[in-house]
Amino acid sequence: MFIRALIVDDSALIRKVLSDILNQDPKISVIGTAVNGKDGLEKIKRLKPDVVLLDNIMPVLDGLKTLSHIMKEFPTPVVIVSALGERAEEITLTAFEYGAVEVIEKPAGILSQSMPEMAEEICRKVRTASKANLKNLGCMRDFESRSSEISPKKENWLRERSGSVRNVLAIGASTGGPRALEKLIGSLPADIPAAVLVVQHMPQGFTASLSKRLDEKSALRVKEAQEGDIVEEGTVLIAPGNYHMEISRNKVNGFEENTVHLSCGPKELGSRPSANVLFRSVASIYGSRVISLILTGMNCDGADGAEEVKKMGGKVIAEARSSCVIYGMPGEIVRRNLADLVLPLDKMAEEILKIVK
Hints:
Helices cover 35% and strands 22% of the residues. It is of the alpha/beta class. It folds into two domains: 3-136, Response regulator (Rossmann fold, 3-Layer(aba) Sandwich), CATH 3.40.50.2300; 156-356, Rossmann fold (3-Layer(aba) Sandwich). Strands 8-9-7-6-12-13-14 form a seven-stranded parallel β-sheet, with helices on both faces. Residues 139-148 and 155-162 have low confidence and may be disordered.
């Protein structure tokens, strides 16, 4: 059975490129295209697609307004097709809050050397989006209304270090992850005795905006990881898109520190960054002090790394099916009997604090 896709984009070239890519996948059929949001809404109502690919910047009716109408009137999995540029990343993250499932970077053209790899990613994300649990894609406004409850950040982030990091939360997420990360990280207090390291599957260029957004809505300091960043309690480091993040022991200003190393090594299970790479890295350094969390996402990234965490005495927590947009990654953890706890998203912060304190 075909996944019926509708493409909404004001560029004739992009509509043609995306149509050609998707129609080459034996599981996907493009049933129509639309030139702007207004046209798209009319065709969604008439054609009832399984997945909508939606441009984020269009005339007549833009992507965000179109997405809002889709989720209210014709709930359908939406993949945002985003061009990197001024405010594009910010708009895309807002689209996640409105209920978008995935984001793909807009193809540059049919002659791009990376087109075969990009085409596979586009098809994979459309296939994933078709399986999304829409009831778990709701807007984050209910969470945003609690922003006044967030405890203030500690004023002095250059505070003296109080010894080694006591615990490490290593988090892997994919489809539905930005929403899940906002809820989870936003629920953790500034004084949590743990460093937080995150792999979120996103294209290069979007993780910086995600980090900024999470920093604004969390008591913790959140930043996109850079080469040489020191792993510290109370700080969340997010792996940049297209880079694996590992932790290594180095001398910094005369002191031995655990620092970030970024690499463009081979993709693992089709992903870079990879949760497996991060989990294996922290397991070897922190051992029983690691708590690995596997959140919503397709396929099985994180399972092999979680196995290493378990071998070294660390704990593994999987998100419950009831709160996942896609149960693939947490489901693999459960299938392999690796989970110490299986919890819905709204129960995770409470259990994490019990463990680390």
